[in-house]
Amino acid sequence: MGDTDMALLATMQEIRNWVRAAAYPGVRKLLEEALPEAKLRAAYQMLDGTVSLDQVRVACKMSPNVVGALAQRCIAMGLMELTEDKRRVRLFDLNDFGLLGAGDEGQERATNGRQAKQK
Predict the structure, then answer these.
(1) Cα 89 to chain center, whole Å?
(2) Cα torsion through 67, 73, 79, 80, rounded to 10
């Protein structure tokens, strides 16, 4: 990289940091509104692109319709994206916003289940 490229990269990183800081309160509020219950937060947190909706449904003890509707709503709100291979991937980690409490065990259960299957 040349000096011009390095300067441009540094400027872009500075802009990114300011945008992150400015967006934090708005994103937190949006997450709180979209995910008012611990069960919904656990389901959202699990949707990291590595598990299926069915795995989320089982781990969080939710109906398929509720999990599907949650994913669709989060995609529409800009909180999640749909990949080319139809995986749903959350865009924010709830831990970064202090929104994943001790009672939100869905992610932990799913991770333990995946580890058990791999052994």
Answers:
(1) 6
(2) 60
pTM of the model: 0.77
Q: Which residues contact 80 (CB under 8 A, 6 or more apart)?
A: 44, 47, 71, 74, 88, 89, 90, 91
Question: If you classify domain 3-118 with CATH, what class do you get?
Answer: mainly alpha
Q: Locate the domains of the chain by residue range.
A: 3-118
Q: DSSP code of 48?
A: B
Per residue in 82-97, pLDDT (tens digit) is: 999 999 999 999 999 9
Cα-Cα-Cα-Cα dihedral sign, residues 24, 29, 31, 32: positive
How big is the CA angle at 79 (ends 78 and 83), to the nearest 5 degrees?
A: 80
